[in-house]
Amino acid sequence: MTRDPVYSACATFANELSGQGVDHVVISPGSRSTPLTLTFAQTANINTWVQLDERSAAFFALGLAKQTQKPVALICTSGTAAANYLPAVVEANWSETPLIVLTANRPPELRGWGAGQTIDQTNIYGSNVRWFAELPIANELDTHWFQFAAARAFQSSMGPRPGPVHLDWPFREPLEPIEDADLGQPSDPIQLEMAETTLSSNKIRDLAQLLEQSPRGVVIAGPMVQGSQWRQAVENFCTKTG
């Protein structure tokens, strides 16, 4: 049976996200993102949502992620489609909402030569994402590399400070799958250790000394994400400091 390296890589990536816990994908269809779109639509245990307008799609995905407290995958084609995700990505950053943004792209040889729907998508969301990676051409690496990329994307979006991640996928034509191709079998999900952040004893001492200088302060708290433990922590802090 013929092997389809592009669709094998996409299937490996999608299956790993599903295994890690991604339940939803929001797709804004476009030709360059065909491999991702078809693969995710056929992935078991992932609900597929289709929104033609990329800005609306991104905010829809943001709402799903806030409701479920789990990363939602977001897929679009190349060019301005990716730029339309920016407002929701910024919102996801500051609200600490996990999103996995997957933008399709032209291959390197078509960039900078006036090809249609081609812009500089490298780190297009800047510091608003927890992790950015420009993925290699799918047929140039073993598919297991894409499994690790999916696992890292999931874990990076979940913490220790949740938020959006961005993976840029270059695809060469033809974009259609090879008929009856062998896409391989799903592997067991990769187990990654979540990093933890803690304050040093020196920093805690400095904060305590700062608090002692103010007999009565004011706590300003913004909206809390669903399931956050910050509310109880703030209440305990206010009780103990008066």
Structure, explained:
The termini are far apart. Strand 5 (131-134), helix 6 and strand 6 form a beta-alpha-beta unit. This protein has 242 residues and is an alpha/beta fold. The protein is built from eight helices and six strands, in the order αβαβαβααββαβαα. It has two domains: 5-170, Thiamin diphosphate (ThDP)-binding fold, Pyr/PP domains (Rossmann fold, 3-Layer(aba) Sandwich), CATH 3.40.50.970; 201-241, no CATH class. The protein has a six-stranded parallel beta sheet, sandwiched between helices.
Q: Sheet with the most strands?
A: 6 strands, parallel
- SSE succession: HEHEHEHHEEHEHH
CATH architecture of the largest domain: 3-Layer(aba) Sandwich
CATH class of the largest domain, named Alpha Beta
* Count of distinct structural domains: 2
Q: Can you tell me the CATH topology of the largest domain?
A: Rossmann fold
Summarize the structure.
The protein has helices at 5-20, 34-41, 54-68, 80-83, 86-94, 143-158, 201-212, 230-241; strands spanning 24-27, 47-50, 72-76, 99-105, 131-134, 164-170. With 242 residues, it is α/β, with parallel strands linked by helices.
